[in-house]
Amino acid sequence: MSYTLAIGDRGYSSWSLRGWLLFDAFGIPVTCRTARLYTDELAYLLREFVPARTAPAVRLDDGTVIVESLAIAEELASRHPDAGLWPQDPRARATARSLAAEMHAGFAALRSHCPMNLRLAYVDCAPPPAVLADLARLEVIWANARAVSGNAGPWLCGAYSAADAFFAPVATRIAGYNLPVGSGAMAYVAAHLAHPSFRKWRAMGLVDGADQPFYDRPYARGPWPGPVPLAARAVAEGPSVNALCPYSGKPVAQFMELGGRVWGFCNAFCRDKTVADPEAWPEFMALTSH
Question: Which of 20, 55, 220, 262 has the fewest beta carbons under 10 Å from its own?
Fold first, then answer.
């Protein structure tokens, strides 16, 4: 059973982030095909994913195409019942599905005023009343989910579920635009920013193509509020500690420095995503422990 996932720019495409998390956060292998938003690239890529009109879209190994994140979540849950996309408890599962459906259809003011941008963070964005109303609604449904599931952990309905994957881009908006929410909601946001799969996605998003000016906003900027990456930098040449790329197993050709040692990778993207956040990549961090 194999899957191919069409996605847009990792730094900006919130729906692509949701689609990818439905695979990576639940240990389901997937091959990604990427295209740049607001160009002909996406339309050209989606010719391979008929009848999809936008990302994310999933092509199954028999050629069937799934469009829309809710459909992707449900199909993966049916094909991988042990992956844990939805909670096992019936009340928690019903609540999680309700949450994902409301996120899929709502919060238009928040989405419009604060488009997802994983490359920047702002000190303040002067949220209008409609955005504040969306934030208040989020706090209500998040608190209700915890009450229904009796969950004291970081996630809404017990263990991390598809509902949490759906709210990951919202968490980045609250964090990146410094939006006003209570301490409980902010703790939930912090859990998203530290989630291993999200850290991988953001590291790739920081180096995945050029900036998209559409997503820039004229607000004072501040530091990204998530975990602070280790200080690494690209360097022009080796020799490196390792002879093979930690991801592909191919001979190294690109290099970075971390902690006074040089490490090698098979291509610039492997290097750059690691420079962006070394601790996001277990395969790389395993090398550094030797």
Answer: 220
pLDDT range class, residue 236, cuts 50, 70, 90: very high
Q: What is the pLDDT of residues 110-122, one digit of tens each?
A: 999 999 999 999 9
Residue where a domain stops, chosen among 31, 52, 79: 79
Tell me the mean pLDDT in the region 47-67: 95
Tens digit of pLDDT for each residue in 157-208? 999 999 999 999 999 999 999 999 999 999 999 999 999 999 999 999 999 9
| Statement to judge: residues 107 and 136 lie in one domain | yes
Task: Give the pLDDT confidence score for residue 152 in this predicted structure.
Answer: 81
DSSP assignment string, the chain: --EEEEE--TTT-HHHHHHHHHHHTTT---EEEE--TTSHHHHHHGGGGTT--SS-EEEETTS-EEESHHHHHHHHHHH-TTS-SS-SSHHHHHHHHHHHHHHHH--HHHHHHS---TT--BS-----HHHHHHHHHHHHHHHHHHHHHT--SSSSSSS--HHHHHHHHHHHHHHHTT----HHHHHHHHHHHH-HHHHHHHHHHHHSSS--GGG--SS-B----SPPPP-EEEES----S-SB-TTT-PBP-EEEEETTEEEEESSHHHHHHHHH-GGG-HHHHHHHT-
Task: Point out the domain boundary residue: 178, 200, 222.
Answer: 200
- Same domain for 262 and 236? yes
Report the CATH number that the domain containing residue 114 is assigned in CATH. Answer: 1.20.1050
